[in-house]
Design goal:
Strand order of the largest sheet: 2-1-6-5-4-3
Number of helices: 4
Strand content: 35-45%
Shape: globular
Helix content: 25-40%
CATH class: Alpha Beta
Number of domains: 1
Largest sheet: 6 strands, mixed
Oligomer: single chain
Length: 150
């Protein structure tokens, strides 16, 4: 399906909004980027359900372990599956707000939907810690495992 430029821009803006809310330490704003029944699977395996819970839990994190951090994201793939659904894949990492940009060590897959109010929100996200050494070993030992996009 071919997406409209406006839809592509809206999904990109949604991901920027989530990163901006993270950098501001604003759990409510972060949670508002998600649908009411969203699923957030963290890279450590925690499963949060629903925008309100995601926002509440992240506020606790922003007030403690993640205080003063930002979420760096680089969108690497965006595909639309109908007029109201898209899958976005991004590289990302969490670092101190004042830290220089660096290699992004995680990969996240987002399912985003356009809701009845016309706004795009995250319906599901699953984050995975990237293991470049294991990737390199796999690609060297079995070259057919290397994705075509690399």
């Amino acid at each position: 399906m071919t997406a409209t430029p406006a839809d592509t821009a809206a999904v990109q803006a949604l991901l920027r909004r989530s990163a901006d809310a993270w950098a501001a330490g604003d759990g409510a704003a972060y949670g508002s980027c998600f649908t009411a029944d969203a699923t957030d699977v963290t890279y450590v395996g925690t499963v949060y359900r629903g925008g309100p819970e995601i926002g509440r839990a992240h506020q606790a994190l922003f007030d403690s372990f993640l205080k003063g951090t930002r979420l760096d994201l680089e969108l690497i793939d965006l595909r639309f599956h109908g007029p109201d659904t898209a899958v976005a894949v991004a590289r990302g990492d969490v670092r101190k707000r004042t830290a220089k940009a660096g290699q992004l060590g995680k990969v996240a897959t987002y399912t985003v939907v356009r809701e009845a109010d016309g706004r795009w929100r995250i319906a599901a996200v699953q984050k995975t810690a990237r293991r470049p050494l294991m990737e390199a070993f796999s690609f060297r030992a079995q070259p057919a495992t290397r994705p075509a996009a690399q």
